[in-house]
Amino acid sequence: KKYVYDFKEGNMSMRGLLGGKGANLAEMTNIGLPVPQGFTITTEACLKYYDEDKKLWDELLKEIDEHLETVEKLQGKKFSDANDPLLFSVRSGAVISMPGMMDTILNLGLNDETVKGLARATNNERFAYDSYRRFIQMFSDVAIGIPKVLFDTKLDNMKENKGVTQDTDLDANDLKKLVEQFKEVYKQEMKEDFPQEPKKQLYKAVEAVFSSWNNNRAIVYRNLNGISHDLGTAVNVQSMVFGNKGETSGTGVAFTRNPATGENKLFGEFLMNAQGEDVVAGIRTPKSIDTLRDINPDCYKQFVDTTHILENHYKDMQDIEFTIEEGRLFFLQTRNGKRTAQAAVNVAVDLVEEGLLTKEEAIMKVEPKQLDQLLHPTFEIEALKKATMLTKGLPASPGAASGKIYFHADEAVEASKKGEEVLLVRQETSPEDIEGMVCSQGILTSRGGMTSHAAVVARGMGKCCVAGCSEVRVDEELKTLRVGDRVFKEGDEISLDGSTGAVYDAKIAKAKAELSGKFGKFMEWVNEVKRLGVYTNADTPRDAKQGRIFGAEGIGLCRTEHMFFSENRIPAVRRMIISRSLEERVKALNELLPMQREDFYGIFKEMREYPVVIRLLDPPLHEFLPKEEKDLQDIANSMGISYEDIRDRVIELEEFNPMLGHRGCRLAVSYPEIARMQARAIIEAAIEIKSEVPNIKPEIMVPLVGHINELKFVKEQMVDEINKVFAEKGEKVEYLIGTMIEVPRAALTADQIATEADFFSFGTNDLTQMTFGFSRDDSSRFLADYNNKKVFDFAPFEQVDQIGVGKLMKMAVEDGRKSNPDLILGICGEHGGDPSSVEFCNALGLTYVSCSPYRVPIARLAAAQAVI
Ligand code: PEP
Ligand code: MG
């Protein structure tokens, strides 16, 4: 079996065996680019190394030696030649690029003898000893694990004693002394001399790469990113070229296009007379790649030509490492460049227009979640560098926000009326805070998870929210926010990044979101390709409009309880809940009816002939019951009953477990008049708009159904009321009645339920809550431990748990369609905007996914990628 490949034996398709770096070095060699030659030891060798009790076996060593000889011939130099030695760099190269593994050892092959040869051959003693001291340091640090700081201290002392600040101010004699000191450090740490035999150095370095595959950082990284532990890493052994041979040599990194904007213009930096890490170390300031034109025009031209060759070959923007050795250009690495969302979209569109990619290929080049960056304001990069991060919470709703902090919704409203930019800070938000949320730039809560009230509502509004920020102590009475020993008072300014969860201690300048022409074009291509419908969750005409701007093709969930949060409605809603008699309740409902009709009319008007799914009231009661004495008194007054009566009634209604309590269709079973009022409002609004939108066909959705009889009961009530409306108006509209599938029993009995339903919509928030038995509101606290301790490597309230929850969904889809072939199927839980869940929904054959407006573009892209 072959475990070692010369660069010229491999190619781009051998990524699995040679790793990303190795495959690309081989490919560059094949297309005739100047690549210092070398060989790659395969990922299979790495796996065998672990099978062989972490030892390099004899045949492998023999194979390495053979390839070493080939490279010696190609380069016309010999490893361990005391006159003019061939030296190597040794680097890891996994299939998927992975921080945390061993990076690079340069100048391998130097020892007390070869260093002299290198000095003679290059006529540059300083260069030779500089290379040697770097090698000792890197080998000791990277391959052996001796702390780097032990060497850095020696280097710093040397400079201090000499009264200089720059490494380049040290001369050959200084460096010779440094080499002796470095070797001494090695001996003290290892109780043996620094290895002088070049082959020993090489074998040791290869082992170091293999064992770095299983170091802690690498394992953590793989767990976090769902990368398999069985892939192994390859090792690349490449002959050295030197950028530190004097003023005609140099080294640098470049992107073929601008990775921040996507602009088709070379972007990069280099340093003359430097090696590897100098460019990124920040000690000397690198020069822009453009200035290479003046320093060495031939080299520059060759560089530019080669970037074109590489882009045409890889059909993507490249990230390139290069070295110039005495005026000769070499390429050390190329890979597809990492980029911002803006650059990703712009490059993808440009590459299609340049004829390099098909639209489908371009669609696959953009990561759906990245699009978020394009839809929200962000902090200015320079301003952000100056800010101090206080702590991190959950990135509940993306965007950047700065403002003065307020701890109560009404105070936030007051301040914003005065023109202040405000942030609402609460332990957790409740429906009463809604207006405070609307007027705020962003929301910060110390409790609650990704599906907490604050998170869901903020996402719906496209407003920045950092939730569950457990290191923050919020005292709503004292109006203080505490993080460690920092205390912020009402009116102090902070900033929030809802995309990362970071909280900063001051105001930070922002850059506005811009949806460029290329973004629009890209999203048109996405629509041409995708099969799934993408709807939005919207409770107001404003949300609906935002959803339409982002390309939503319908409303998959209109949560009517969210319509009741405003100041002028909540008293009537509370009276409706608190009423002890039908008569009282109907009175309250009659007040709400015209408001609801208007709400629905507004939404229909915005959505025109696109489908609109309106859900019956589904309020966890605790969110609506009055708590403050003043509110209780107000209700007592307006209902003409005593304060004590109201208080007793509220106590009576309190539940220990409201999320499993009197909500959803259960409320409609107890009080059918509520469902009747809502059905009437929907149908009356539809009749009203029919002259403008002749095809209007509202869809009414019943929440929290677990048994067919629940649906049957509520449906009968509504149909009866709707028929009354038809009779009164002398006019009819078409409508659909369906149900959410969010209680496990509903999924298990989907065959029965489908006989009564025109559509199903998976409420995966509740379905996840009830399938796992994890509270939506509280589980984020312990789920963090699950992730830290690697019990879970997924977040069940963000991505559909395909194995468990997904099984229920699949069953419901299949059984539901069997008994009702026309059944429309959708999803409206938060998962509807998550790319992996969208892919799953596409595979299940759902009709549409629905998500908050700001996630619509992400879901569209994910839906397109799911079919490519
Ligand atoms: C759900 O449970 O997934 C859902 C969409 O309903 P809500 O979040 O309003 O409970
Ligand atoms: Mg629900």
Automatic annotation (TrEMBL):
It is an enzyme of class 2 (transferase). Its cofactor is Mg(2+). SUPFAM superfamilies: Glutathione synthetase ATP-binding domain-like (SSF56059), Phosphoenolpyruvate/pyruvate domain (SSF51621), Phosphohistidine domain (SSF52009). Substrate binds at R559, R615, E742, G763, T764, N765, D766. Mg(2+) binds at E742, D766. GO terms for molecular function: ATP binding; kinase activity; metal ion binding; pyruvate, phosphate dikinase activity. Belongs to the PEP-utilizing enzyme family. This is Pyruvate, phosphate dikinase. The gene is ppdK.
